[in-house]
Amino acid sequence: MKRLALIAALWATSAGAAPGAWVDGVLPVTNPPVSKSVDLPVTLPRDNPAPEGWAQQTPDQRLVYNVNKPQLLLWPNTTLPADRQAPAVILVPGGGFQFLAMDNEGFDVAKRLEKQGVRVFILKYRTLPVGNGFAAFKQALAGLFQRGEKVKDDDRPFAVSDTQAAIRMVRSHAAQWHIDPARVGILGFSAGAMTVLATTQANAADARPDFVGMVYGPTQGTDVPAHAPPLFSVIAADDRFFKDQDLSLLHAWRQSGASVEFHLYSAGGHGFASQPNGTTSDAWFDQYALWLKDNKITGK
Q1: Which residues pair with 231 in a beta bridge?
Q2: Which stretches of the chain are DSSP H helices?
Q3: Where is the signal peptide (predicted)?
Q4: How much is the pLDDT for 285?
Q5: Quick one: which of 171, 222, 226, 166 has its CA closest to 196?
């Protein structure tokens, strides 16, 4: 997610947009730039009668809300031979479980990640119903960013269920998609990082990630699954949502004997996935790429 100042762009008028481009306050956007998407099976049903909607945060930042059909977007990797077996990374965007930051924490990260020798997928998991239309979405954003309302823990199981379905889907298509089924990881941002953690903690036998990454996500807790996978975690000290958490989760992960890489940046705020700030948090992706190589996930 980008920070509040930029979210205000959602509420701007259509000045500068092409005539007729805005419909009920939502700027229509083109389909995601992926060659293929697959629907994920739903194991935890939820009724969401409102139709899916997209909003344009800035000209290059799109958000999707009222997601009621989970999908896995297959990112076309043009840097790998089509038949080479490679590790897979499933990106899990954030958005307070009320929307998904599809560019900042999805497509833009995928463009960088494909060059690391991995096959990239973007998880479009179900979000909280926020009502029908842009006005309802705008009100939900105001609660999340202006009033600082908390997301209830019982909203998380749906995102976790969809993430587990994504892991199962990738492994079941490993031969078709030329993936090493023993190198399937998940990388989440904000609410997506919360989802990554909860998915790993659930430790489902058929949906365990082989490596996990959390970008501006939780750092507090003691619940570490048995045989925990390698963990990569980054956060800025001035993160508005998680800055008050201690580092007990990282300590517990280390104490379990599992591998941990952690970077605490002095500044960077929240939402720096693909948005340079001129702070050391800008280095997070390069450090993640080195971590993948150091853990023998890439480079084979």
Answers
A1: 212, 260
A2: 4-7, 108-113, 134-141, 156-172, 174-177, 191-202, 248-255, 284-294
A3: 1-17
A4: 98
A5: 166
Mean pLDDT of 127-135: 85
Report residue 222 as tokens: 């003691």
In Å, what is the CA distance from 226 to each residue of 188, 192, 205, 208, 223? 21, 22, 11, 11, 10
Could you tell me which of 140, 98, 101, 108 has the C-alpha nearest to residue 11?
140
3-state DSSP call for residue 18?
coil
Q: Using one digit for the tens of pLDDT, what is the confidence trace for 211-242?
A: 999 999 999 999 999 999 999 999 999 999 89
- Beta-carbon contacts of 224 under 8 Å, excluding residues fewer than 6 positions away, are 201, 249, 252, 253, 255, 256, 258
Domains of the chain: 4-15+24-294 (3.40.50.1820)
- Residues 12-22: tens digit of each pLDDT: 322 233 322 33
The two tokens of residue 175 are 């031969």
Note whether 297 and 182 are within 8 A (CB). no
